Amino acid sequence: MEYFLPDRIYDAAKWLGLIACPAIATFVGVVGPVWGMPHVDAAVTTINAVGLLIGALIGASAVTAKEA
User: Fold this and answer.
1) What gap in Å lies between CA 14 and CA 56, rounded to an integer?
2) Percent over 70 (pLDDT), the chain
3) What is the Cα–Cα distance from 29 to 43, expressed in whole angstroms?
4) From CA 21, how far away is CA 46, in angstroms rounded?
5) CB contact at 8 A, 48 and 22
6) Less Cβ crowding at N or C end of the chain, within 10 Å?
7) How far is it, in rounded angstroms, from Cα 54 to Cα 59?
8) What average pLDDT does the structure give for the chain?
9) 66 — phi, psi (to 5°)?
10) How far apart are CA 43 and CA 39, in angstroms?
11) Where are the domains of the chain?
């Protein structure tokens, strides 16, 4: 299969969207209030939205993949 995104970028984006963003959002949501971080809910929502955007982009790459 030939993807719209190069393999290295696809793998990095997949890792970011599926593992890193949710983990960071959870960390900020749990630790942020303890440390008095302002706007924790907005930060968590933004991080999750970025993860969703990355997931949509890699999904679009998978859908538009061409047979080699």
Assistant:
1) 10
2) 94
3) 8
4) 10
5) yes
6) C
7) 8
8) 90
9) -110, 145
10) 6
11) 7-63
CA distance 16 to 56: 12
Cβ atoms 3, 60 nearer than 8 A? no
Measuring CA to CA, how many Å separate 2 from each of 15, 39, 61? 19, 42, 9
pTM of the model: 0.83
Residue with tokens 């968590």: 44
36 backbone φψ class: left, alpha, beta (φ>0; ψ -120 to 50) = left
CA–CA distances in Å: residue 49 to residues 14, 17, 22, 36, 65: 14, 10, 10, 23, 24
Per-residue tokens: 19:
């593992």
Q: Give me the amino acid identity at 41.
A: D
Q: Are 21 and 51 in contact (CB under 8 A)?
A: yes
pLDDT digits (tens, 9 = 90+) for 36-52: 999 999 999 999 999 99
